[in-house]
Write a sequence for this structure.
């Protein structure tokens, strides 16, 4: 028995060392990936000193400029996006992985993920969401595919924090089914004329411009769309009804109508007709960052609950002393650590240029699940106090519920994972096509 | 005249951490505990950087005496705007025995070597609360000292320093070179911007040992015991003001 154990451990040591010292493939991309992952394995630390400095500086900014106001902003159901973004922009936080020519820092995606993780120290879900729309949801496609003109006009001021941006993809009739959007942008000379509507638009009330997904031609739903930089002061744009939500209160969510809105055709990001593809690429960063933002709140939820239950006494002892309580919290913490590791691994692979769509979909799914499970379990241990508005856990319980829905619902993530696994029945998609043809 | 400023920055247990006494009662638990720059030293760095921005200082040197991780503290100072760093290596084991006099000797020696005309340190470190380094450094150098500074202004060859004293504010003038210790209200330290954090990576940190500076770390103090502060006892509710007054009198509080 003992020999067997030793043998096994030697085998594993050898294999592990083999991984570390083994010959890498000649493809440099691969080499980079393995170097990233290996460096991480060797040190056990994913973040370098610079990443940690970034995080501690950002946390300081958050503690001074943001957290003291969060309760008030949550009550008022809005926060001053221009003011907050300018502070973040001046400190260099809004263009971490964006090109240096436009005011970014050109740092690899690990820094963006470090930033996202530290954003989680804001005491609510709404503001981190609003910030990540600016940094990683509405701007990746522009930075990668936009013309110099568009980057100069829209990207530079967005990185500086002088402009607030929103992302216009979802509509009342199409959320999960992005390809099914109905908003059109038809060419008229050198211009586009936009008609339709968008719903659920984060930052929608305060934004200076929108990264808009619209149909620019007829034909295949995956090749007829374009992403367009749309200034929000263009005539014909109506921002109506602020949507009242169960959580994410400080973030404004708008419904927006377009009535013959005229914008130059040169505002199309990259190639016309590539909008759907660009948006799918953009989603990867949105989902990775969105999930990284969840880590700190989940940690804090557990930590606050440990604090509360160690002081709250029931039946003559702290609530925490019940095995049902401390084991549950230990299990939840384990889950959060597993998610964190998945986030780091996908980030390392993404930096190396790998396609991480499947992994990121898994991360987004797991984040969504934990964002329900962790606050719900923790809230339970607060008893009646958990059901009040007075604590962070109940705020998270409301705010984090969105993670399973926004940026692609859990079921959409499952469908992507199944597609990669080859287990998604073909009938589903052909059925969808038929339905669409019928409704058109 | 443009000054070269030497600033002390100590790595201490982060102010937000709940301190725990070690089982041997000879110190507090430091392993696996978050550390950061002593808040008063952050104020000192900020002041030095502001002097540089006003072109009163030409160079800001951040010094930290501590274990390897003290370099992280220096990097923070560099990201805030210090020009270069000096790390005086003290092995983690010896850190507990490091006394203000040792640090003062190191700072005094470095001030001479670097031809600094101004030394700024925090008024105290939040771990041992000694409040002695500035004073002893000034004594060793035989320079004037301006402690607990809440405002600092340069006039010709002199510094005008506002000090927070018990009775209010006192304004003094000191001739340069001088030693200043920063109080809480001297300024509000900036957070490092990301571009500056990245630039700080390239700034130089010189490494040396106390003995390179001829400083001997022999102990003059011995820690006899470290104990937790007494826990607060539960309060009671009283019916009215009279009962309150009686209770307070009984407790000998009034
Ligand atoms: C607070 C908030 C902020 C938002 N911000 C933005 C924004 O800034 N920009 C933007 O464009 N959008 C935004 N959204 C929209 C968000 O992305 C959509 O709500 C989301 O994509 C889901 O779309 P839907 O609401 O239309 O739900 P539907 O598409 O109607 O889906 C409803 C449910 O159907 C189920 N479902 C869907 N597809 C499948 C499937 N394949 N298999 C099984 N079940 C399935 C899921 O359970 C799903 O939750 C925001 C939403 C909210 C609530
Ligand atoms: C909206 C609302 C309305 C209410 N209305 C009334 C009312 O009309 N009249 C009234 O008298 N009360 C009322 N209550 C109080 C309610 O009954 C208590 O909140 C509930 O009994 C839990 O008690 P607690 O809040 O003190 O939680 P605690 O007793 O502090 O318990 C906290 C948590 O500890 C855990 N726990 C407790 N015991 C154990 C155990 N043995 N093993 C493992 N885990 C344990 C559980 O997860 C529990 O949720 C109300 C509460 C709310 C929120």
């Amino acid at each position: 028995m003992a020999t067997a154990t030793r043998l096994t451990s030697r085998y594993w040591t050898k294999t592990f060392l083999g991984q570390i010292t083994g010959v890498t493939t000649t493809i440099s991309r691969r080499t980079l990936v393995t170097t990233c992952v290996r460096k991480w394995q060797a040190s056990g630390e994913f973040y370098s000193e610079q990443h940690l400095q970034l995080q501690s500086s950002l946390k300081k900014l958050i503690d001074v400029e943001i957290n003291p106001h969060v309760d008030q902003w949550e009550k008022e159901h809005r926060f001053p996006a221009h003011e907050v973004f300018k502070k973040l922009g001046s400190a260099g936080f809004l263009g971490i992985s964006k090109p240096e020519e436009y005011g970014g820092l050109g740092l690899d995606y690990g820094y963006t993920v470090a930033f996202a993780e530290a954003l989680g120290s804001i005491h609510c879900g709404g503001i981190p969401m609003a910030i990540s729309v600016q940094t990683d949801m509405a701007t990746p496609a522009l930075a990668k595919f936009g013309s110099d003109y568009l980057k100069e006009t829209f990207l530079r001021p967005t990185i500086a924090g002088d402009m607030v941006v929103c992302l216009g993809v979802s509509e009342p009739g199409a959320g999960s089914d992005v390809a099914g959007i109905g908003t059109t942008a038809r060419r008229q000379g050198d211009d586009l004329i936009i008609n339709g509507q968008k719903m659920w638009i984060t930052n929608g009330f305060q934004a200076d411009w929108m990264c808009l997904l619209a149909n620019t031609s007829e034909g295949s739903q995956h090749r007829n769309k374009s992403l367009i930089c749309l200034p929000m002061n263009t005539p014909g744009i109506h921002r109506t009804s602020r949507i009242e939500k169960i959580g994410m209160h400080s973030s404004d969510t708008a419904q927006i109508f377009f009535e013959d809105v005229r914008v130059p055709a040169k505002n199309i990001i990259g190639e016309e007709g590539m909008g759907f593809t660009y948006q799918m690429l953009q989603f990867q960063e949105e989902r990775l960052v969105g999930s990284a933002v969840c880590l700190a709140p989940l940690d804090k939820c557990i930590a606050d609950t440990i604090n509360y239950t160690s002081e709250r006494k029931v039946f003559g002892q702290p609530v925490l002393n019940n095995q049902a309580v401390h084991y549950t919290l230990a299990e939840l913490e384990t889950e959060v650590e597993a998610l964190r590791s998945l986030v780091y691994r996908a980030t390392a692979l993404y930096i190396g240029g790998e396609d991480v769509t499947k992994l990121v979909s898994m991360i987004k799914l797991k984040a969504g699940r934990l964002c329900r499970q962790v606050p719900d379990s923790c809230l339970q241990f607060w008893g009646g106090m958990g059901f009040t508005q007075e604590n962070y856990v109940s705020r998270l319980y409301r705010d984090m519920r969105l993670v399973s829905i926004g940026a692609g619902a859990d079921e959409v993530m499952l469908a992507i994972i199944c597609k990669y696994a080859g287990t998604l029945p073909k009938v589903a998609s052909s059925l969808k096509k038929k339905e669409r043809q019928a409704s058109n | 005249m443009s000054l070269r400023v030497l600033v002390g920055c100590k790595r201490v247990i982060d102010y937000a951490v709940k301190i725990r006494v070690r089982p041997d009662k000879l110190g507090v638990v430091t392993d696996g505990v978050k550390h950061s720059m002593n808040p008063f030293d952050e104020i000192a760095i900020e002041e030095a950087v502001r002097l540089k921005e006003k072109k009163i200082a030409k160079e800001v040197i951040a010094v930290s005496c501590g274990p390897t991780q003290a370099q992280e503290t220096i990097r923070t100072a560099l990201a805030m705007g210090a020009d270069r760093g000096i790390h005086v290596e003290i092995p983690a084991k010896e850190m507990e025995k490091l006394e203000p006099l040792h640090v003062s000797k190191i700072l005094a020696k470095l001030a001479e070597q670097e031809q600094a005309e101004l030394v700024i340190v925090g008024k105290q470190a939040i771990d041992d609360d000694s409040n002695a380094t500035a004073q002893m450094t000034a004594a060793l150098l035989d320079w004037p000292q301006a402690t607990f500074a809440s405002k600092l202004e340069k006039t010709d060859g002199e510094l005008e320093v506002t000090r927070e004293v018990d009775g209010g504010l006192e304004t003094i003038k000191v001739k340069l070179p001088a030693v200043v210790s920063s109080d809480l209200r001297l300024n509000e330290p900036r957070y490092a911007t990301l571009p500056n954090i990245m630039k700080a990576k390239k700034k130089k940190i010189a490494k040396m040992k106390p003995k390179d500076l001829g400083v001997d770390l022999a102990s003059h103090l011995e820690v006899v015991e470290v104990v937790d502060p007494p826990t607060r006892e539960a309060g009671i509710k009283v019916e009215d003001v009279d009962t309150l007054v009686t209770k307070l009198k009984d407790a000998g509080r009034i």
